[in-house]
Amino acid sequence: MHSTTTTDLSILLQNLSKTNDTHKEKVVLIKTGALNPVHRAHISNMIKAKEHLERVYGFHVIGGYLSPTHDQYVQGKLSREDFLSGYHRIRMCEEAIKEANQQHWLGVDKAECTAPKFISLSKVTLSLQMFINEVIQLEKPIRVIYVAGLDLFNRCHGMVAMREAPWNGVAVVYRSGEKESLIQSSHSISNERLFYVRDDTPENQAEAVSQISSTQIRQMIKNGQSCHNLTYQSVLDYLKTIPSPRS
């Protein structure tokens, strides 16, 4: 599924060339999802996961990817009016990464979105991990860790397979209002495949970011409300260029 046409490895190679930390385990992050549209919490969660994994576990995160989910899955979730094609969702992710000034380590992975059919998040993660290590052959393989919000971790059965896989893992980012009983019973500092990113930013600020949703943004746009604090201006500008499905 992954190839040089879908997945740009240049960021990983550049970051590897800049480091002298040869003893640290190299990690790449991936976040899948509809991203319809991408918003501030998507990128914020990737940044939080990177900082936590490096600070607490001593990993060296050499890159990360936003991976928009296949149209087949997103069309099944959304109305025709709300659905945005994979092409547009990829473009908006690219714009958001640039506006957030995270292009030195974040990119957009097109493999999932351009696959012949919907692929589960565990298979997407494993495929990326295999592809990276086929191309970049280090003495110790590069690990790909999936980044999930606490809401996804609580409801998605695929998380079980992810955290039991031989050598990847899941970084779960706290989301306000979500129950922590499952993650607290599953997580320990010695667990090598499950990492809980508990927010340490000021409570009101953390809650505001973690509560952002694409559904909320779509509704606010329909109502003519400003939502620049929820997503990026470049994303809002791009949305204005997409013809209405009714036109």
TrEMBL record:
<dbReference type="InterPro" id="IPR051182">
    <property type="entry name" value="Euk_NMN_adenylyltrnsfrase"/>
</dbReference>
<feature type="domain" description="Cytidyltransferase-like">
    <location>
        <begin position="33"/>
        <end position="219"/>
    </location>
</feature>
<dbReference type="Pfam" id="PF01467">
    <property type="entry name" value="CTP_transf_like"/>
</dbReference>
<dbReference type="InterPro" id="IPR004821">
    <property type="entry name" value="Cyt_trans-like"/>
</dbReference>
<dbReference type="GO" id="GO:0004515">
    <property type="term" value="F:nicotinate-nucleotide adenylyltransferase activity"/>
</dbReference>
<protein>
    <recommendedName>
        <fullName>Cytidyltransferase-like domain-containing protein</fullName>
    </recommendedName>
</protein>
<dbReference type="InterPro" id="IPR014729">
    <property type="entry name" value="Rossmann-like_a/b/a_fold"/>
</dbReference>
<dbReference type="GO" id="GO:0000309">
    <property type="term" value="F:nicotinamide-nucleotide adenylyltransferase activity"/>
</dbReference>
<dbReference type="GO" id="GO:0009435">
    <property type="term" value="P:NAD+ biosynthetic process"/>
</dbReference>
